[in-house]
Design goal:
Blueprint: E1 5-6, H1 27-41, E2 45-47, E3 57-61, E4 76-96, E5 106-119, E6 125-131, H2 133-145, H3 156-161, H4 163-170, E7 180-181
The structure holds nickel (II) ion.
Length: 185
């Protein structure tokens, strides 16, 4: 089932999320729905707050970019209760977008390597280093689980330059090709 994506201005994007455990109902269905929603919206990552749920769950679909980056063929992963344990490497600028911010694309600096702990959908524990594009996506999505968005990482100047676009999104004045849940005041 395709879920509506919550866009900038909705409180859930700024909420602290809660960890889940094995008693969380219908987790596999939620993950399947998040993958379907992400694919339809042509993104590479989706965090649960973006579908209105303040829980520590996210999905990453790098298979979606495997025409350009064949090493990611079949890369479809769900991360439950992920945390950034440490970072390494240089701060690297890279242009990011976010399904909760239709039309906004800006360079954001992030460390090139990141160590993440998480459990998978069967609650097996993992702890791995990521680098390159996956490191970028992991940091962007885990930010969502901490109530942060990529605009918080932009330079003050770039944020200022996007001020109008941001207020339009918050007011529900934007177009995009996927289903959204917007604020209508
Ligand atoms: Ni995002």
């Amino acid at each position: 089932m395709i879920l509506p994506i919550y866009t900038y201005g909705q409180g859930v994007l700024r909420k602290e999320t809660e960890e889940i455990d094995e008693s969380y109902e219908n987790l596999k269905q939620l993950i399947a729905d998040m993958f379907e929603t992400l694919r339809k919206a042509e993104g590479v990552g989706l965090a649960a707050p973006q579908v209105g749920l303040p829980i520590r769950v996210m999905v990453v679909d790098l298979d979606a970019v495997s025409d350009d980056m064949p090493e990611f063929k079949g890369y479809l992963k769900a991360y439950i209760n992920p945390y950034i344990e440490e970072t390494d490497g240089e701060l690297v600028p890279y242009e990011e977008g976010c399904l909760s911010f239709p039309g906004i694309h800006e360079k954001v600096n992030r460390p090139s390597k990141v160590r993440v702990s998480w459990v998978d959908e069967d609650f097996n524990e993992h702890d791995e280093w990521f680098e390159g594009f996956p490191a970028r996506v992991m940091q962007h999505e885990i930010d969502h689980l901490d109530g942060k968005c990529f605009i918080d990482r932009m330079s003050p100047l770039r944020r200022q330059m996007n001020k109008k676009a941001l207020s339009n999104i918050a007011a529900g004045k934007f177009n995009c090709d996927y289903k959204v849940k917007i604020n209508r005041k």
